[in-house]
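Limitations
The structure tokens in this dataset are predictions for the assembled complex, not deposited experimental models. Users should treat interface geometry with appropriate caution, especially where small molecules or nucleic acid strands are included. An illustrative entry is reproduced here so readers can see what is and is not provided.
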Amino acid sequence: MANAIEVSDISKQFVLRHTRSIKEAVVWLAKGRKGDLSQKFHALKNVSVEIETGETVALLGLNGSGKSTLLKHISGVMLPDSGSVRTRGRVAGLIEVGAGFHPDLSGRDNVYLNGAIMGMTEQQVNDRFADIIEFSEIGQFIDTEVKFYSSGMYLRLAFSVAVHTDPEVFLIDEILAVGDEPFQRKCIDKIQELAANGKTLVVVSHDLDLVARICSRGVLLEHGNVMFDGPIDEAVALLRA
Amino acid sequence: MSDVGLTELRTPGLGGGLRDIRQSRFLLKLLVRKELKVRYRGSVLGLLWSYVKPGVQFIVFYVALGVFLGLERSPRNPEGLANYAVYLFSGIVLINFFSEALGNAARSIVNNGNLIKKIYLPRELFPVASVWVSAVHFFPQLVVLVAGCLFAGWHPDLFQLAAAVAGFLIVGLLATGLGLLFGAANVYFRDSENFVDMLLMVATWASPVMYAWPMVQEKLGTVAFSVYQANPVTIGVELFHYAFWFPTTDGSAAMPPHLFSLWVPVGLVVALLVLALGQLTFRRLEGRFAQEL
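Predicted assembly:
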């Protein structure tokens, strides 16, 4: 089977810049570059991961281990300092639910806007609009501005748009712990349906029981290094140990 | 099963620059529509503000400059400009378009930081959408201008109308280029947007909007006047004067020398160079937008 994602030997260093003004930068230069204008830290160190088409992979690790950073590299939001990332087909992500939502627009406008942001064409949004509304269970509130939505409704609509974008590679960051129990179950069913249809899934979550159900493979990260890469049960056991 | 085996492996996050916008026209349209909807939310006058603000601005300038400082031609002031009101307003609408387009484009990347940090999309869309939104706001002002021109006996020929389109294009290209440049720089140094505000204040006075170009030529001399003329905004304003103001006068007013044979091509080339520079800078900086925002 062909690889859907090839991450080869990428490193990423973050600069924690303390200043955002030219004045301070000039002062710093004038003082002969004394002191640190910025601190650096390694978010990812020589990470290599290959994911085959149709695989379901969980990125595991404690807070700050580099999971989300790796996901952002796969989606193209960030570029690595060294190494390379390559993906096959359309990649779409639920990096954060409702990132592309505007509170002052109606649910309907937001579905179109968010769909377009995730790379859907006008025709695709039109065709899937009814499905999106049905899945989200928003019903009559679709023409209400989303700032009046409850957090659950907001989330259901955002998730519904995302699962209907139909990408080849689906990235999910920490969004499964959302909504009430029935909707959460519906989301998980949908995700499992996507996996069964041969979509590639990359999931970041702290809910270990959940990822153990959805994913078959676990990649354990610690301080930007890959500590373990193998069956999900072993990865979860290792993280819990 | 899906047909993913047929597609190639690609490096994510490397866009094709402004070329990507052609594929994202649907998203561009929605972004522009969003801005227009959100702009005047909760205001009673709504889009009317697009008329009220330039209207008040026009009256203030007309009274102060035309009447008090004597730029308007009248029986007691035969040296003044004929139809100064039309002269003034045709320049103001173009400067307003430029100011709004550049001001918003320079802030667009930082303002949309939340999205840029989380989802990959061609980021050039945001400055370009700002310019489009400004073009939409420019339209009602243009309607007012044309109404005023017709009232003053406007009778343009096709060439004059083409001059207006050329002026608008030159200024629009320049605003897009500078918007890309300062929008990207603003991510790293927030000083950028203050610099743009200052630049816009200067731009209003560095073009013959309030006054007439012969006054500049008289004071500056030939060489410095050539520098003054090379500003694409100046050329745009002069083209607008040629299109809207000139046909309302008796035709005795002089246009700047070599306007069409030299300065219009120069303006276009300068605007395109700035656009290329803006795009180049933007592409060099955009790789680190997500971590710097």
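Some entries come with short summary sentences. For this one: The radius of gyration of chain A is 20 Å.
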